[in-house]
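Sample intake — Isopentenyl phosphate kinase
Collected from: Rhynchospora pubera
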Amino acid sequence: MEAVQPKSDPNPNPLGTPPPAPVGARSLQTPLRCIIKLGGAAITNKYELESINKANLSSVCEQLREAMMPQSEKGIGMDWSRRDGNEIELGDISKIGESSVRNGLNSNFIVVHGAGSFGHFQASKSGVHKGGLHSPLVQAGFVATRISVTSLNLAIVRALARGGIPAVGMPPFACGWSTRQRDIASADASQIMDSLLAGFVPILHGDAVLDHALDCTILSGDVIIRHLAELFTPKYVIFLTDVHGVYDRPPSDPDAVLLKEIVVKEDGSWTVVKPDLLQAEKGVEITVAAHDTTGGMEAKISEAAIIAKLGIDVYITKVGTEYSLRALKGQVHENPDDWLGTIIRSDK
C-alpha cells in the first residue's frame, strides 16, 4: 500500500504572523542573572515518601523574593486557587495596577529543582531509568513518576507564587525535551526564553523523558542546569543543598573538611585551592573524594565543572542560611572568606 504524503500548505502561516525566532536570535534585555538548583534533599524530607520540607521551601521563597526585590515591599500573592479545603484566597488584588511592585521586580532567574522524596521511589521500583517502555511495568512507572515529580513542581510554583514571584512550571517532558542514551538529544528552550522575556520565572525539574535509544529514562536536574547554563550563560549558578558545600568526606564525619574553593582547568581536571592544607598534602581529586550524605554531590560536581569551564562561577551552599541569601544576591565575592560554602570556578 502506497503511503499517503501530506499535502504542503501553500500558506503555512495564514494569520500572517512571523514564526518565533530561535533562541539564539533573541536575547534578554539584561543578561540572565542566575540559574538556581534546589536540591531534592534540601526541599523535601528524603526519608519520608513525597514529603516537602516546608520550612526550607518557605525560606527559599523568602530569600528569592528578597534577591529579586531588595525593597521590603511585599508582592502580590499569585496563587488564587483553592487549597486545603479553604475558600479561594484572592488576596488584595485591588492593589494590582500599572504602578505595582512588578516594576521593581528583577525576575531574571531560572529555577531547577530535584525530586528528593518524590519520583525516585516510583522510578526505581519500575526501572524507568533503564528504559524499555514495551514493559507494562515501565510504562506504568513512567506515568507514576511524572505524576509524583510534577506534583512537587506544582507545590513549589504555588509556594513561590504566594510570595509574589511570577513562577511558571515547565516540566521538560511537556516542553519536548528528550535524550539519547541519557544524554540530552532535544531541548527546545524557546518557551523558557519567551517566559523570561515576558517577566516570568521558569521552574523546571528532573523528569521522566523519552529516550531515542532506551525508550525512556530519567533526566536529572543537574544535567538540565548544565544545559541551561550553556544556552543562557548566566552571571552565576547556585546549588542549594542540605549541607554547606563540598566536603572531602561525608559531612557527618567529625573530621570532614569543607572545600571552600575549587578551580577547574581547561582539560577538566580539578584542584582545591582553599583550604591550602589539602593542596599541600596531595591535591584532592574532587570526583573521587567529594560527596554528601545522599551520594549525589559527585554528580553535582561533575556538572558544575562543565559550567565553570564556561567562565561561570558556581556556588554550592546550604539552603535557608545567610550564605544562601548572599549567593542569591550575587554578593559572595564581596567577602568570600566570610562566606560558608564551596566556590567552583575556572582557572582562567
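Post-analysis note: The first helix runs from residue 40 to 43.
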